[in-house]
Design goal:
The chain is α+β, with helices and mostly antiparallel strands. The chain is globular, with a radius of gyration of 24 Å. The protein has one domain: paralog of FGE (formylglycine-generating enzyme) (Alpha-Beta Complex). Bound molecules: calcium ion (CA) (2 copies).
Length: about 350
């Protein structure tokens, strides 16, 4: 009965194909189930950040280690609620992109320096500008006396001397050229201001100028300055200076410290405000000319308080000299590669 035999064989083949497909689906389901917890080091509280070593999972294995994919979307760049430089409100669209979920850490930058031998500008020039809390007498003597050029201060030794940068803290005292070199080493880039602000707002609008980053119960929700700057630093948020990355809850995109801790560099040349139709000039590589080119930095730092700076908001921006290493300015990177299918599935990105 060749016909019956043939039917039986085809049936068996179909059954094998179905069971292979089921096995593949099961494998994908299992991969999905195990993928998310394996890929992420949990952050978002003081206990979790203290336990973090500063290197994302799969560092130097996965080219997007430590990054989150943000699906593109519409948002409003700027706000009418903050300082004059944060105006006006520009209806904008951000294409999808990847962004570091934390500020670049000392451990990540150390990995870069060890692998490439890169020497930062502060290391080459022998020092950087550091915040030193003044006394009343110091303040009476000189404006902005809290900024001091410290010999030997650099990303490894943020206060100079024998000070030592903690691996899970944001890298600081890095210039625009240093930040671009690190980003390019990973095949990434620095964010534009538009990308950075889209990531920081995470679907929300601008915040009122006087709106401190606090949770519903009133507890600080970011590392900023409590007390009268610069004489009184109550440390209500648990940190007198820089904090490890990811000590506070992430925003709606699960990004940490977009507001506060370290200011973050963008690749955009500073503009006085936002104007419709304005295309910011971006800096993509060295040499950076002129040396003191004013760049846009975002999100405020641990030195912003109610009586000074007041820039602990997603729209907040300031001009910063491209080649000036400072102790409260760091950065995070972006990649404009498209999301892979698994990321789209897990993070709800565009199909
Ligand atoms: Ca603080
Ligand atoms: Ca920050």
């Amino acid at each position: 009965m060749p016909y019956a035999l043939d039917v039986t064989t085809r049936g068996a083949r179909r059954a094998r194909a179905v069971s292979a497909a089921a096995a593949a689906a099961l494998a994908v389901a299992a991969a999905l189930y195990f993928y998310a917890p394996a890929a992420e080091t949990p952050l978002g509280s003081k206990d979790l950040c203290a336990a973090y070593g500063g290197l994302p999972a799969d560092w130097r294995v996965n080219p997007r280690a430590g990054m989150v994919y943000l699906p593109g979307g519409k948002f409003t760049l700027g706000t009418t609620l903050g300082y004059l430089e944060e105006r006006g409100e520009i209806a904008s669209h951000a294409p999808g992109f990847w962004i570091d979920r934390t500020e670049v850490t000392v451990a990540q930058f150390a990995s870069f320096a060890a692998e490439t031998g890169f020497v930062t500008q502060a290391e080459r020039e022998g020092g950087g500008v550091v915040f030193v809390q003044p006394s009343e007498q110091d303040l009476a003597r000189q404006d902005y006396v809290w900024w001091q050029y410290v010999k030997g201060a650099n990303w490894r030794r943020p206060q100079g001397g024998n000070s030592r940068a903690e691996p899970n803290q944001p890298v600081t005292l890095v210039t625009l050229g240093d930040a671009l070199a690190y980003a390019h080493w990973l095949g990434r880039d620095l964010p534009t201001e538009l990308e950075w602000e889209y990531a920081a707002k995470a679907g929300h609008g601008g915040a009122q100028l006087e709106h401190e980053p606090r949770a519903a119960d009133g507890a600080p929700a970011a590392n900023f300055w409590q007390g009268e700057f610069p004489l009184q630093n109550t440390g209500e948020d648990g940190f007198q200076g820089l904090a490890p990355v990811g000590c506070f809850a992430g925003n709606g995109f699960k990004l940490y410290d977009m507001v506060g801790n370290a200011w973050e560099q963008t690749k955009d040349v500073y503009t006085e405000d936002h104007q419709a139709g304005q295309t910011p000039v971006s800096i993509d590589s060295e040499p950076i000319q002129p040396q003191n080119l004013a760049m846009t930095v975002k999100g405020g730092s641990h030195l912003c308080g109610r009586n000074f700076c007041v820039r602990y908001r997603a729209s907040a921006r300031e001009a910063h000299e491209a080649n000036l290493p400072l102790s409260h300015i760091g950065f995070r990177t972006v990649s404009r590669e498209p999301a892979d299918w698994l990321t789209r599935l897990l993070q709800g990105g565009p199909a």
